[in-house]
Structures are given as C-alpha cells and as structure tokens.
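User: Fold this; tokens only.

Assistant: Input:
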Amino acid sequence: MKKIMFLILAAMLLCTFVSCENNTSDKGKQGALVVEGQTIAKHTTIYPEYATLPLCDVISALGFDLSPDGKDRAYFLCNDVKYEICISEKTLTREGSNENYLICAPGSSHYVCDIANGDLVVDSNTLHSLFYTFLNYPIDITIDGKNSCVTVKVRSQ
C-alpha cells in the first residue's frame, strides 16, 4: 500500500513539474516593429521583459546608409565613424578596432545575438546600449506587449 501511495505521489509531482515547465517557459510572440514611422515586418519577437529585433533593418530604418559587401558583412557611418557588421561572426566593430560592441547590456538579464535567415537579431537591451553607449546616437525603444508592437525612435534632444 505504501508503494502505491508513493508511486501516485511521485506521478503527481512529476506531472506538476512538467505542467509548470510548460506554463512558465515563454517562447515569445511575433510582433510588429516600427522604426521612425517605418514598419518592418520580420524577425521581431516580444517577450515579457525584452524583444528581439533585426539589427541591420533597424540601422537602415534609422536612416543610416548600410552598405553590404555581398557576403556577410555590411558597413555604415555614424557620427563620422565607420562601423562594420559581420553576421557570421555576430560582431559590430569600429573601423580599425576588433572590439565587438554587440555585448550584453550592463544590468540586463537577457542577451540575444543570433542569426535568423541570414539576418543578425539582437535583444532590445543590447540594441539600446549599442546606440546609446558606443555609437553615441541615443534611441528610445518602447515595447508594447499588449498590442504586439515595438517602436524605435531617435531620442529627442
């Protein structure tokens, strides 16, 4: 009798853990991305505390002339400084430097820097930190989970 009770209790606990795992793992939901009024319809996923965004599309939509080399690199100027993006290496560097600026934002508990269908996708905290800290081009990112929309705007001075 004790063995049966133990097996029932163990099965209940196992079901509880499996149930909690499925309920607490948030896979995110697809959302719209609006950058300076321009809608970008790909690779935007919204999570409770952050969103993942297509880096090159955001840079282009912010008005920077992003020049791809036909392979997996692209270049752009920001504040008279040339930057290079390498998708396969998941890097964004300043000309003449090998320091990667796509690093986890200070204090952030989430870091995403992945390749999705040939695009570099980063989390909203990393993107904000990149523009604010390294590029000296502050942007504001608003995540509206209720309406599944992320808005990126150049910060007003």
